[in-house]
Task: structure prediction
Amino acid sequence: LAAFAATMAATRLLEPWTFAYYLVTDFAHVAEGMGVPPPDLAARLSQFADRLRAVAAEGDVDEVLLVGHSSGAHLAVSVMAGALARGVAQGPALSLLTLGQAIPMASFLPRAGALRRDLGRLACCRRIVWVDVSAPGDGACFALCDPVAVSGVAPPGQLWPLVVSAAFSRTLSPRRLRALRWRHFRRHLQYLCAFDRPGRYDWFAITAGPRTLGDRFAGAGHSPSRVTVPVSPHRSIA
Result:
């Protein structure tokens, strides 16, 4: 017991660097309903979908860009799918950007049929552009895993997501890489920060620049390291 208590105390002391408690709590929240969102969260997702539809209907926007980071990526998928199911006005580009995603953390759960259905629908939807950005240097995400394919719901003629790498080894300077070497969770947040040598993926250019997500990634191909092996033990979409 003393050794266990000492280990727990040490883990607490290391929390600012490891974020272990945060990550475990995050997973516990996602897995609480075994894939079914709690009612209050489901209501908020529905409201968010209605908000997206309202913005698209305003008529004076070029693009509606929905962004989901980390465990928020699967929520963004649900919001986009919900909005499309209710009908989104034609006109503005409709874009989904998932960053450092942990979608399989939710889509692999036994009762996540609705999420798997949403993934399959978005994967073949021509109304949207969906770009998924991750990096092997980010240990808190499912790096370069195609969330549709690994969940076992890839439809014939799958269009999305475009899986690309943030390639920290090329887009961050050696000095910054050294500074982030032991800051694992900070690397998980890098997608929302400036890069020293940005490529196609540039958070500020995408969210505040003049080009749509589709324009910026036009002609881009999947990362050669994209993972598409269907490994989810649960694949029902009921």
Notes: The two ends are 45 Å apart (CA to CA). The chain has one domain: 32-216. Residues 32-216 form one domain. The CA atoms of residues 83 and 94 lie 11 Å apart.
